[in-house]
Amino acid sequence: MLSTSAKPYIEASVPVLREHGLAITTVFYKNMLTAHPELNNLFNLGNQANGSQQQSLASAVFAYAANIENASALAPVIERIVHKHASIGIKPSHYPIVGRYLLGAIKEILGDAATPDLIAAWDEAYWLLAGELIAAEARLYQATGVDADSWMQMQVVNKVQQGIDIISFTLKAIDQETLPAFKPGQYVSIATYLEDVQLRQLRQYSLSDAPNKNGYRISVKCEKGDAFKPEGKVSNWLHTHVEIGDVLDVGHPYGNFTPTILASHPIVLISAGVGVTPMISMLNSLVEDNPNRPVLFVHAARSRQHLSHTQDIAVASEAMPYLHHVLYLNECDDKDDNVTIGMMDLAKVMSTTVISKQFLDKKNVSEFYICGPQRFMDEQWKMLLGLGVNPSKIHREVFGPESLSHLI
Ligand SMILES: Cc1cc2nc3c(=O)[nH]c(=O)nc-3n(C[C@H](O)[C@H](O)[C@H](O)COP(=O)(O)OP(=O)(O)OC[C@H]3O[C@@H](n4cnc5c(N)ncnc54)[C@H](O)[C@@H]3O)c2cc1C
Ligand code: HEM
User: What CATH number was assigned to the domain covering residues 267-407?
Assistant: First the structure.
């Protein structure tokens, strides 16, 4: 618990940090990565360049302090960070470095306002949270039985184009007989050494098939560049350089976006674009282990040419008598009964009598999973709240660092 002497300093400085948050986090990353260039091998260059990372790590410390008496708001955030850190291989020895540069950045930006008492209060808040994370990460490493920063050598045994911008890679272990089990919805990190920047880079990819002891499948969208942003480094490297027979360094599966497959309550899987990947793992697991479960699968894509995993969905539609598949396309010239043209509208989907009866009338027990671009998820989240769904029933996966702006 935060000490009574530190509490007023934290409370008084939260609005100041809200105002200067971005400046503090920018200085923090710059100073830390200059003094410790080896950490560039852990941090994501793309998320630094597009600004999403600056919003995240230090914001979590501020969000923690701002919500120190509101453990229920923080618990899912902490769980997500712990899984992300484990997938990257964060160790206890990293924490003093981050702490030193974060407090240094607060001092630098706040200037004279950063009195010794205020810095002491933030030091205490940082180490409270760091202690929680270190302990939870140690428990997670122990539960999975793997050390931080350990990698499996996996060979690409299949490479399949899924729609126009997604490729699935099937991976088999070459240095061990069976693979670690995973829960549908979890992801792995892929580590690659990028010659142009001479750095190791890590990216996370959701496992896109049901758990299977022999292999993993990931499905990667190539992030194209345009006049305003460069093309994504690792996704394009995977698309253009990695072929069948190549070997990749793959991390242990982690992630807390994981529904219970063997349950009877209805489940609603809502996705857009490449956000479909964890949903396909869930769907294929339901086909194998619980095909009679009521499932509403709602997906949005730009066009039929952009759809991926159509074969998995066709198999599930055959095997699952209570699966409802609803598709939203921005453009389509061969429309059928499944397809609506335009933006996803969950209120409209839920207004269909049979769907309303099976999913919305049971909103106190139904579970809702959302994955897609941030704006899409925010819209569906609001829509579900508007339909009376309890936030504790809604789960989301962000394909990048969470901004946590709602907690600060
Ligand atoms: C839990 C999780 C699961 C995921 N699952 C999947 C999945 O199943 N499939 C999948 O395809 N992806 C998934 N992702 C996303 C994936 O990890 C990568 O983020 C994605 O592939 C892009 O990586 P990249 O190296 O190609 O792009 P990066 O090089 O990291 O660039 C990312 C974005 O930043 C932009 N950017 C880079 N530099 C600048 C700059 N200077 N200015 C402005 N913008 C810039 C790029 O244009 C690009 O849009 C997942 C992410 C997470 C966290
Ligand atoms: C109290 C201390 C820390 C807090 C509160 C914290 C918080 C966070 C948060 C919120 C994220 C984003 C999670 C997500 O939504 O995906 C994150 C990711 C990350 N953290 Fe930490 N972190 C802390 C310590 C550390 C340390 C000690 C390191 C090691 C140097 C570290 C390295 C990373 C890396 C590399 C990422 C992934 C960044 C990305 O993919 O863009 N963190 N952390």
Answer: 3.40.50.80
